[in-house]
Structures are given as structure tokens and as C-alpha cells.
């Protein structure tokens, strides 16, 4: 398997840097997205360009970034783009740099490098070092700059990990302060380690998690919160550990890069500009704002239900509905874990044989793991030896689960054929309505399973 080495940059189709960049209460947003596949001397990569293209489209369409995309970029291409941003960005601007490609670490000096498509394996003449990047980031007047680096040894770019972020009522004041302070931060796909080029749906594991997190997001989100959404699916699905921190020697002053989806600017303005007037509560805002501040980091669905009951058309109602739906989905995942048993099912070919399915499920993120057991049911006229197998391809989407049971069929003298049974279920409390279809072309089956009480 090919691996990437230090960092992941990417930005979309070139557009002039000017007043056309989208404006929000947090300023204008620009992105430089770099994806390198077609290496001239190093092994070619498979997913870097597709990662960059998907990230660029997402930033442009959902987050109103003005994006410049570099496919198969040389050292000159990368440094020229950074120099142009340095010359043209203002203190009202935000810049995201996304790099997907090969990287390298000099372990003697603890220096990381990007390796553009014209890089040679044993000659750093065309490489881009940490110092090349940080010197330019330090010289930029843009208030907030974030690097997203998906490459091997990308941990050489960051310093120490950041501390815990405030929650509840502290977050409003904290967010205002972060927006005022200069930031130079990075989310990197791994530490001092190789990271995978392959993943799912044509993307690397890290890029898929990054794209999923920004796609699912419905409110403003700062870099540290985004990192928490990315890190777990990467750790679960690959032998790499993402990191988040400020960039070494790049002029970081304690701020944060804040992502603002299209359509929530008015809600953000309400949070960041809410005036303090006589008679307001001690939290410093209107009763609605203080209510929202007290629950916005809550993990209880009831808190958001209470907000929506009191302020059904409030400034934060869209965010409350999104958070409520997410919490309800998480609660549904928690209900899925455990043991389940089906009703007795008649075997379609073996007369007098009744069997039951016993499922033991675990849920990690959106993945469904566990085992399936075929068990002789009470009243069966024939006994069969119980058979226990691991399920595969398991996933959870709200209250809908899907998974597969692989099996083989003897084909006489031609050996064995691989097949699978595909299960789809709708979870409703302590029961699951299950639909079963195999790849042999047999008619589908429907049956119910119920939770096994402890």
C-alpha cells in the first residue's frame, strides 16, 4: 500500500483574490487546495487528487470559500501560490491550506517536508520544508490560517496539543476572543508515522473523515471541535493518530479558525454581537441567548427540546433542531448495542427445521460490529449444530442498520463460490423489523427480532 508523507494541502479552481471572497461576521474565506497523484520520480498516489477536488467543492459550495485548486503541483506552483496569498490577503481574511501528497521527515533534524510532483527521492532541491511554509504563514497579514495536512509524518508541523476548550456559558466570550486573536493552526492526519493513501469511496481515511465532518456540520465550528469529530473515525479505521495544535514558529497568538456554513451567518452575528443592556441577566445577553449558552454544549436531548418549546422561532432554533436530531441519532445507536433474538423461522428448503438468529451488536461511530448465530428453535423437528459468524460491512444510519453475513456455496467439481446474506433492519425500541436478501437470488425474507433482556 502506498503511503503519504508529511502533509495534506488542497484548494480549488483558481479565482482572483479580491472582494468576491465570501464575507461573514468572521471575515472573508479563502482556500488553497493541493492534491498530488502523478509523481515523476516517487510512487504515484491514488486518492490525493480526488480528496482535493472533493474538499475544494465542499468548501466552495457549503462554506462560501473562494478556492484555488492545484492538481499535481510542483514546488514552484505551491510557493508561488503562497507568495500571492501573502501579498494579497488582509487582516479581514481567513486562509485554509489543504495538502494531499507525499511527505518526508529528516529524523536527524526533526524537519518535515512536502514532496511536490517534481520531487526526487534522494534530493531535497524541489521539496517544500516546514520552514518554507511557516515563514510565509508568519509573514501573512490574514488573521486566521489553518493547514490541513494528510501525509506521512505530518506531526512535525505542529507543536504541543491544545488544552480543553470552554463549554456552556463560557463559549460565547471565548469565541469572540478567538476571532479577535491571530491564529496559525494545523490538523494533521498522523504524528511521526506513515499514513494510508487508501480508504473508502475513493478517499484516504483522513480525507473521508474530514469531508464527512464538514458535510454533516450545520453550525459554526472552530478547529478544535472539528478535530474531535475527525480523530475518532481515523483512529478506529487506520493505524494513524491525527493531531491538532498551533504551527511552530508561524506567529500563532491563541486564536482559532472558525468554519461558517452558508445560511448560519445571522445566527453567528447574534452570538458575536449581542449587546449588553440594563436589566439583562448576569450572563450578559438576552434571556434567549443566555438559555442557549447554557445548553449549547449539552449532551441531553431534553435541553434542546426545552429550548425549542420556549423559542420555536428563536435565533438558534435551526441549530437546536440539528443538535437534537444528532443526539437522538446517538441515542438510537446506544439502543442497538446488545443481544437480540429472532422469532422462530421456517427453513425454506429443510422441512420441519425451525431456526432462530441471535445477534450480538456493538456500535462504534457509524459502524456496526458483532456476531450472528444460527440456532435451532424450540419445536423444530430437526436439530442443527449452532453456527456463529462475525458480521461484516455493518453500518448505522439513524435507526436503520445494515450488515452482511459472508458464506460459501459448494459448486460440485468447480469448488466454492463466495456469497453473502445482506440484512437491513429498522430499530424501534426493543424490536427490529428485519429484511434479508442473499446474493444467490433467493426471495427475500422478513422477520422480527427482539432485545434479549439481561
List keywords for this structure.
31% strand, 454 residues, alpha+beta, 28% helix, single chain, seven-stranded mixed beta sheet, flat
How would you describe the overall organization of this protein?
The relative contact order is 0.10. The chain is an alpha+beta fold and 454 residues long. It is flat, with a radius of gyration of 26 Å. The longest helix has 20 residues. The N terminus is likely disordered.
Summarize the structure.
With 454 residues, this protein is of the alpha+beta class.
How much helix, percentage-wise, in residues? 25-40%
Strand % is: 25-35%
- Separation, N- and C-terminal Cα atoms: 44 Å
Which segments are poorly predicted (pLDDT under 50) over 5 or more consecutive residues? 1-21, 157-171, 268-285
Can you count the helices? 10
Mean pLDDT across residues: 77
Structural class assignment: alpha+beta
Characterize the largest beta sheet: strand count, sense, and whether it forms a barrel: 10 strands, antiparallel
Number of strands: 26
Radius of gyration: 26 Å
Shape: flat
Topology:
Blueprint: E1 3-4, E2 23-24, E3 27-35, H1 48-62, E4 66-71, H2 75-88, E5 93-100, E6 102-106, E7 111-115, E8 128-129, H3 130-139, E9 144-150, H4 170-180, E10 183-188, E11 195-196, E12 199-200, E13 203-204, H5 205-216, E14 221-222, H6 223-237, E15 243-246, E16 258-259, H7 265-273, H8 287-295, H9 301-310, H10 317-336, E17 338-342, E18 345-346, E19 354-364, E20 367-376, E21 387-390, E22 392-397, E23 400-410, E24 416-428, E25 431-438, E26 445-451
Parallel strand pairs: 3-4, 3-5, 5-9, 9-10
Antiparallel strand pairs: 1-11, 2-3, 6-7, 7-8, 10-15, 12-13, 14-16, 17-19, 17-26, 18-19, 19-20, 20-21, 22-23, 23-24, 24-25, 25-26
Helix pairs in contact: 1-5, 2-3, 5-6, 9-10
